[in-house]
Design a protein that fits this description.
This protein is of the alpha/beta class. The protein has a single domain, classed as Rossmann fold (3-Layer(aba) Sandwich). The chain has 4 helices and 4 strands. Strands 3-2-1-4 form a 4-stranded parallel β-sheet, with helices on one face. Helix 2 links the parallel strand 1 (36-39) and strand 2 (57-61). Helix 1 crosses helix 2. The longest helix is centred in the middle third of the chain and has 10 residues, at 64-73.
């Protein structure tokens, strides 16, 4: 069993409340059937609800421990896990049309993530 602890140097904070995660995932219903890009899935609390939407889901995670955890607990994600810093990701390499970006963003880079998303609008 893999255990993942939040890393302060990555600004990690793991969402633990499944009711909140479910509500966050439900916000994407208005944008169906667009593919979903989740930034910083951590231990997958939000991921599990996004997978239940039945849409194309790709996750971007920089932390190797989190990636190992996601691969073990969410095998359907294999092939859709990008081990990378979202801020350096060439989004156009993966999406040539509209897509949704979602995540329980690390506090220390939330503004940077917002501007990165606007760049790829």
């Amino acid at each position: 069993m893999i255990s993942v602890k939040p890393k302060k140097n990555l600004g990690q904070h793991f969402l633990k409340d499944s009711a909140i995660a479910s509500r966050i995932a439900d916000t994407l219903d208005a944008f169906a059937p667009l593919p979903i890009l989740e930034v910083g899935p951590g231990t997958g609390m939000l991921t599990q609800f996004l997978l239940s939407k039945g849409r194309n889901l790709t996750v971007v995670e920089i932390d190797r421990e989190s990636i190992a955890y996601l691969k073990e607990y969410f095998p359907s994600l294999n092939g859709n896990i990008l081990q990378q810093n979202f801020l350096t990701l060439d989004v156009a390499e993966y999406y040539d049309g509209p897509f949704c970006v979602i995540g329980n963003y690390p506090y220390n880079i939330s503004t940077q993530i917002f501007f990165k998303v606007l760049e790829n609008k």
